[in-house]
Amino acid sequence: MGCDIVTVSTDTQFVHLAWQRSEKELAGVRYAMAADRTGRIARMFGVYDEGSGHALRGTFMLNPEGKLLNMEMNFYNLGRNIDELMRKFKANVYMTKKTNEVCPSKWKDEGDKTLKDPGAAMVGKVHEALQG
Amino acid sequence: MSDTAGALRLGQVVPDFELPTYDPVKGDFGTFSLENQRKKGRWTILFFYPADFTFV
Q: Which of A68, A96, A105, B44 is the most exposed place for a label (fewest CB within 10 A)?
């Protein structure tokens, strides 16, 4: 899909190695695990917890030009839904190809209803556009 | 970008950065570089989490 997932914590790459090799849940991991020891990058994205030195659960999607298109942040105790992440990713890729379309909340994959050329004619008529 | 600058906002181009990595596919250490991602035309998903050996 032309996308690289990189996980980031304030642990070292050495601990990443040890964790990945010992935790069976991580046996199939195919993404790079990055070490942000100083928290500089976590701070840049606004997810560094100064009190604990940990990064909060933040997810950030960057297009091939490096532009930030999505962000999601959860506190420590809530996990993230990978299906929703993939939905957003597919939508971003789709809208890069179809720049006159926008993906509504129920959009899941190519072929699903989009809104085309949203403009003055669609104001107050989104319901009709979604049915059409 | 200075270390004290405010957090990034949507629509901004993220300044280039590099981080050391462990790559389980290669079984070796490496480097993530945002500049390389741009050069290769790759999308990037950064997935921050609190700590290894905890319950993600």
A: A105
Q: Residues near A101 by Cβ (< 8 Å), separated by ≥ 6? A: A94, A95, A114, A115, A116, A117
Enumerate residues 5 to 24 of chain B having a beta carbon within 8 A of any beta carbon in chain A: 5-17, 19-24
Regarding an ipTM greater than 0.85, the answer is: yes
H-assigned helices in chain B: 34-40
User: In chain A, what residues touch B20 (CB-CB under 8 Å)?
Assistant: 12-13, 34-35
Q: In total, how many domains does chain A have?
A: 1
B-chain residue closest to A26, CA distance: B24
Q: Is residue A89 part of a domain?
A: no
Domain of residue A19, residue span: 6-80
CB contact (8 A) between residue A30 and residue B25? yes
Q: What local confidence, expressed as pLDDT, does residue A131 receive?
A: 83
The pLDDT tens digits of the residues spanning B14-56 come to: 999 999 999 999 999 999 999 999 999 999 999 999 999 987 5
Candidates A36, A58, A68; nearest CB to B19: A36
Residues B25 and B20: their CA atoms lie apart, in Å, by 15
Q: Where do we find the tokens 């839904």?
A: A81
Overall average pLDDT of the A51-73 stretch: 96
User: Is there a domain that residue A43 lies in?
Assistant: yes
